[in-house]
Design a protein that fits this description.
The complex is a heterodimer of chains A (523) and B (155). Chain A is built from 18 helices and 16 strands. Chain A is α+β, with helices and mostly antiparallel strands and 523 residues long. Chain A folds into two domains: 1-50 and 505-523, no CATH class; 51-422 and 430-467 and 489-499, Orthogonal Bundle (Cytochrome-c3 Hydrogenase, chain B). In chain A, the strands form five sheets. A four-stranded antiparallel β-sheet of chain A has the order 1-2-3-4. Chain A has a three-stranded antiparallel β-sheet with strand order 7-8-9. Chain A has a three-stranded antiparallel β-sheet with strand order 11-10-12, with no helix packed on it. Chain A starts with a strand and ends in a 5-residue tail after the last strand. Residues 1-14 and 507-523 of chain A have low confidence and may be disordered. Chain B is of the alpha/beta class and 155 residues long. Chain B has a single domain (2-149), classed as HybD-like (Rossmann fold, 3-Layer(aba) Sandwich). Helices cover 37% and strands 23% of the residues of chain B. Chain B is built from six helices and five strands; from the N terminus they run E-H-E-H-E-E-H-H-E-H-H. In chain B, helix 1 packs across helix 5 and helix 5 (122-138) runs antiparallel to helix 6. The longest helix of chain B is centred in the last third of the chain and has 17 residues, at 122-138. The radius of gyration of chain B is 14 Å and the shape is globular. Chain B starts with a strand and ends in a 6-residue tail after the last helix. Classes of the chains: A alpha+beta (523), B alpha/beta (155). Chains A and B meet through helix 4, helix 6 and strand 16 of A and strand 2, strand 3 and helix 4 of B.
Chain lengths: 523, 155
């Protein structure tokens, strides 16, 4: 923990100080610096400390190479990158995957969400409930019993369950990790009856655990919770609800005032995801008749349609060669220009904006944009905050699993999973989807059968962006404002705020700890 | 089943040792009860390959385990001790090894870690591939031989 003077910020008063926050479990390649006035954060800077550069690696390679390379952008959400890459190529090749190919794509992506949501909630976010900062709380001992690293009951069960459910991706994709089975025109795999039964079994097993351990009730019962009043009634209704991990989360969060921190801009964005197969009984949420998860942009709870042309990336405060204002990803460039940590530029992340505005993305944004009544009620009353953001992540599996069950049962063994594509030498396409952490887009141009241009905007670029050309803070920079620091050596509440966005800046960066280590610490 | 799990990022020259060993092993025929896996950056998701295995040999780039470049058999307990923090997106092999006894389905397999120190040249990759295969097939017996053979380089 170091307390330093920030050369960017003039000293306002003697009580103002700037801290490098030791959020050592956020990411090795993320640094948070806050200015503190008294005990609360008055300003914040989020710095991505690693240059990624995948866009430049892709230029000049074969048109389909994004299918193999972009899943390596992230070791956590490779299926989401594969989906976005395939979606972009479907546009370029003018291919429409057959209905069962869409089911196979969707099920894999949704499985990745199930795994990631549970790991983030119980291994990362709620492990902080076992932080010694809370040892005076009546619920502390129970938090330790549930979430202590390497031994907490829920933590261990989460690892067991999530390593099983991800088998669905291996079955559908023929390989895990780094599957590349999605191709323009469908999926390059075949599925027999045994494969389909195995997927259904794995999903049923995960659901049984989720209902028993996480919800304390059937998914159908949870889906009846449509308002704040319903939530309160659900919690009080039954001991199995109160003692579930969801019930415990709500009780602990109320105890520590989690809803009082992490407000942010109250702008939300979703690219939309999970295209509906034409012959499916699954219906889209909200008003979407094309995707299960609708695309949209919301200011507060007012939702408007999403138009990808309104996306722009700013670099005024990023270590890239300057240009005026923002540029659409088709026009954007990735030209690194490091100037050191001092001065105006302070992050390797660009600053994506929608209609010139910062926006947060992730499960909560999906809930708001799809018009989910409970989350519309919660955000309508209190605005976004760390509590509601994490709540959305905890219950997203309940929203996904009914559609997953339906799609798994609709899949037909040995059905057509691919339509041949023609020979396309040039074109451009946008591949949009929702990764576990939110809006993901690949903007691709092909010329002479090679990649001419590739720009990727990840969810964490949205959530963890630095300031834009107008000097407006990124979403979690803004969300940190007003957060009480408490013990500067253990600022657990700052960790809650940032982790409620589920930050992920991982791209195989090397971090050497001590003198003896594996060469790579980030997976 | 005995498994060799090669870890790393083939797009990062500092981290391509595991994938290079995988490529080498995949070129040749393997005994029927040995499987080689391109583990990439899957971290905790590699647990599914550990479950049900009789023996697992991880292959990865390492640093600081030897005074010079080459192949080294790394003490698994020492790797486990590298992590005490809760899970995060950076949780890799040390976290997996630490949590393995709690989450492994069935009997925890015999685990070895073959490290490649320094740039993975052709000679080192070949040596690592041969050593990994010997460890997978013969286990501790091969490990004792390897430690004697590599005593000049192991840390």
């Amino acid at each position: 923990m170091s307390v330093i003077a920030n050369p960017d910020v003039p000293v306002k008063r003697s009580v103002t100080r700037t801290l490098n926050v030791p959020l050592n479990r956020v990411e090795g390649d993320l640094r948070i610096r806050v200015e503190v006035d008294g005990d609360t954060v008055s300003n914040a800077w989020s710095s991505g400390t690693m240059y990624r550069g995948f866009e430049n690696m892709l230029r000049g390679r074969g048109a389909l190479d994004g299918l193999v390379i972009t899943p390596r952008v992230c070791g956590i959400c490779g299926t989401a990158h594969l989906t976005a890459a395939a979606n972009a190529l479907d546009v370029i090749f003018k291919t429409q995957p057959p209905p069962d190919a869409l089911r196979a794509r969707n099920l894999a992506l949704m499985t990745e969400h199930l795994q990631s949501d549970m790991r983030q909630a119980f291994l990362m976010f709620m492990s902080d409930f076992a932080n010694p900062a809370y040892e005076a709380l009546p619920l502390y001992e129970e938090a330790v019993r549930r979430y202590a690293p390497f031994k907490g009951e829920t933590a261990i069960e989460t690892i067991r369950q999530t390593k099983e459910v991800i088998e669905i991706v291996a079955v559908l994709g023929g390989q895990w990790p780094h599957s590349s089975y999605m191709v323009p025109g469908g999926v390059a795999t075949t599925l027999n009856q045994v494969d389909l039964l195995q997927c259904q079994h794995l999903l049923a097993s995960f659901k049984a655990w989720y209902e028993r351990r996480v919800l304390g009730c059937p998914v159908a019962r949870w889906l009846d919770v449509q308002s704040i009043a319903d939530l309160d009634a659900w919690l009080d209704k039954d001991d199995s609800h109160r003692n579930s991990d969801l019930g415990f989360y709500i009780r602990f969060a109320r105890e520590i005032g989690l809803a009082d921190v992490g407000r942010g801009h109250d702008n939300f964005i979703s690219c939309g995801a999970l295209e509906l197969p034409a012959d499916s009984q699954v219906r889209g949420r909200g008003n979407s008749d094309t995707h299960l998860i609708p695309a949209g942009f919301a200011r507060g709870t007012r939702v408007s349609p999403f138009e990808q042309k309104e996306v722009a990336e700013h670099v005024a405060h990023s270590w890239f060669e300057d240009y005026e204002g923002g540029r659409h990803p088709f026009e954007g460039e990735t030209r690194p220009h490091a100037t050191g940590e001092e001065g105006k530029k302070y992050s390797w992340a660009k600053a994506p904006r929608y209609e010139g505005l910062p926006a947060e993305t992730g499960p909560l944004a999906e809930m708001i944009i799809s018009g989910h009544p409970l989350f519309t009620d919660l955000v309508g009353r209190d605005g976004a905050n760390a509590f509601v953001r994490e709540l959305a992540r905890l219950v997203r599996p309940a929203e996904l699993m009914p559609a997953m069950e339906r799609w798994a049962s609709e899949l037909t063994a040995d059905d057509t999973l691919y339509v041949p594509r023609g020979d396309v030498t040039e074109g451009e396409g946008v591949g949009l989807t929702e990764a576990t952490r939110g809006a993901l887009g690949h903007w691709v141009k092909i010329a002479d059968r090679k990649i001419q241009h590739y720009q990727i905007i990840t969810p964490t670029a949205w959530n963890g962006s630095p300031r834009d050309a107008e000097g407006v803070r990124g979403p979690w920079e803004e969300a940190l404002i007003g957060t009480p620091v408490g013990d500067p050596a253990n600022p657990v509440m700052l960790g809650h705020v940032v982790r409620s966005f589920d930050p992920c800046l991982v791209c195989a960066v090397h971090v050497v700890r001590g003198t003896r280590s594996l060469a790579r610490k980030t997976v | 089943m005995k498994r060799i799990i090669c870890i790393g990022n083939r797009y990062d020259t500092r981290d391509e040792a595991g994938p290079k060993v995988y490529d080498r092993l995949a070129q040749n025929g393997l005994p029927h009860d040995v499987e080689v896996i391109d583990g990439g950056l899957a971290g905790l998701d590699l647990l599914r390959f550990v479950d049900g295995s009789e023996r697992v040999v991880f292959v990865d780039a390492v640093s600081g385990f030897s005074h010079r470049a080459g192949v080294v058999v790394v003490d698994v307990d020492e790797v486990m001790e590298q992590t005490s923090a809760p899970y995060d997106h950076a949780a890799g092999l040390p976290y997996l090894l630490r949590v393995l006894p709690e989450v492994c389905q069935g009997t925890t397999p015999e685990i070895f870690l073959v490290g490649l120190e320094g740039p993975p040249g052709e000679e080192a990759v070949l040596a690592a591939a041969e050593l990994s295969l010997a460890l997978a097939v013969e286990g501790c017996a091969a490990n004792a031989l390897a430690r004697r053979a590599l005593s000049g380089t192991s840390g």
